[in-house]
Write a structure and sequence with these properties.
Order of helices and strands: EEEEHHHE
Number of helices: 3
Largest sheet: 5 strands, antiparallel
Oligomer: single chain
Number of strands: 5
Strand order of the largest sheet: 1-2-3-4-5
Structural class: alpha+beta
Helix content: 25-40%
Length: 106
């Protein structure tokens, strides 16, 4: 079984779309270039369940508290960007897929 949550920054902008599985968190994000010659990017990453205890410890949750609820609470409280920054620096995050697309202005 899996559950989804959109992780948002303090202004409500989605920064990761997370699907929580028993064995991992799958993260997806799409960003679009803001002008000519800037890429559109799609990224799929995953955090293995071996990292779940670190997340719980970092944010003061009990060992059995569901990860999806932690992500939802961090996002709802405007701390999604904080989580993203911390996770990228402190957790094993595997890049599963990255796609770049350019629309060059000639």
């Amino acid at each position: 079984m899996s559950e989804q949550v959109t992780i948002r920054n303090a202004s409500g902008t989605p920064i990761w779309h997370a699907t929580v599985h028993n064995d991992s968190i799958k993260l997806e994000i799409e960003s679009y270039g803001k002008g000519p010659n800037e890429p559109d990017i799609e990224s799929h990453e995953s955090i293995p369940d071996s990292e779940f205890p670190k997340i719980r410890e970092q944010y003061g949750y009990q060992p059995d508290y569901p990860i999806v609820k932690i992500l939802r609470e961090l996002s709802d409280s405007g701390r999604g960007e904080e989580f993203k920054d911390w996770a990228e620096s402190n957790l094993e995050i595997k890049t599963d897929f990255v796609w770049w697309s350019f629309d060059f202005d000639n």
